[in-house]
Design a protein that fits this description.
By secondary structure, the chain is an alpha+beta fold. It has a domain of 69 residues. A hairpin with a 2-residue loop joins strand 1 and strand 2. The longest helix is centred in the N-terminal third of the chain and has 18 residues. It is elongated. Keywords: Membrane, Transmembrane, Transmembrane helix.
């Protein structure tokens, strides 16, 4: 196994998480302006399910799925680190959120 490639991917993920992801639960992701209906709100991938609620697809779920389909050591290191980072949030299993005003 190419451990050095896994480490490179992990370091890239740590830098990415530090620069672009919220420091704590409920914080704003990288760009507050990155909103396009109906799939993204303030940097979060969401799916509107009613007038009152949205389904938040956490980044750790996306990376967990991508690990299966992208056989690359650097990407695996990056994605695995992003999964661990995402699971460190207290709200990592909160999928239903109140729909924001104006969305």
């Amino acid at each position: 196994m190419n451990y050095h490639l896994l480490i490179i991917g992990s370091v890239l993920a740590i830098v990415y998480a530090y620069l672009f992801l919220p420091k704590s639960e409920g914080g704003k992701a990288g760009s507050k302006k990155l909103t396009f209906y109906p799939l993204m709100y303030e940097g979060k991938i969401v799916i509107p399910i009613s007038n009152d609620e949205i389904l938040h697809i956490h980044h750790w779920i996306i990376y967990l799925v991508l690990i299966i389909f992208i056989p690359n050591y650097i990407f695996f290191g990056f994605a695995a680190t992003m999964v661990v980072q995402g699971l460190a949030y207290r709200d990592c299993f909160d999928f239903l959120e109140k729909r924001p005003n104006g969305y």
